[in-house]
Amino acid sequence: MTAAKPTVHIVDDDASFLAAISRLLRASGFEVRTFSSAADFLEQREDGAPGCVVADLQMPGMSGFDLQSVLAQTSNPLPILFLTGHGDVPSSVRAIRDGAEDFLEKRAQKEKVVDAVRRCLERDANERRSRNQVHELRARFDALSTRELEVLSHVVHGRLNKQIADDLSIHERTVKLHRTAITTKLGVSSVAELTRVTIQAGIFPFPRLQQTFPKGQ
After folding, report:
1. Which of 37, 39, 72, 189: CA 20 to 30 A from 13?
2. What is the pLDDT of residues 54-98, one digit of tens each?
3. Is the preceding omega at residue 205 within 30 degrees of 0, hence cis?
4. Which CATH architecture does the domain made up of 143-200 adopt?
5. CATH class of this structure's domain 7-131
6. Which pLDDT belongs to residue 17?
């Protein structure tokens, strides 16, 4: 199956500028789609498809900042580049603070715009790769039983087998069996690596485990 080609989504209510910037980016080798409003883009967006957004700041209805906020809350947010005719320092500071790749005026040099779009697409590829790695890690953690997660929590907090056994009221041999199962399922070989993947998967610190176990289980 061929991977989808990254697409530059241009959102601007100025039809003449929309046509001009789309010609520039297509001539530079980018796949481009154009939208006259943020609402149109969000309605037609293919969730999960790679790419980036080039948006005006001030538009009727949903503004560029509104669009940035909505994108940030999706499971696969696209990086956004602001290309506006109404730039000022407070707006640029807010845009970058909230995660925009860049904030340029519409009269910026063509080379600068093209470079910013390339950076946007590279950022999307990197962030997408990181999200995929986290999803794969979490799938491994999903294979752990609640008891194994409980033992894992003690291990990454530096507890020894005997201490874990005492805390959980189980045999030390049982703790060792659980630790073997954990490292096998997660594909790690050391406590340091175990801690790293636990943090990377976003499940550390562990939430409180509600289930209780009888002594000796």
Report:
1. 72
2. 999 999 999 999 999 999 999 889 999 999 987 789 999 999 999
3. yes
4. Orthogonal Bundle (1.10)
5. alpha beta
6. 95
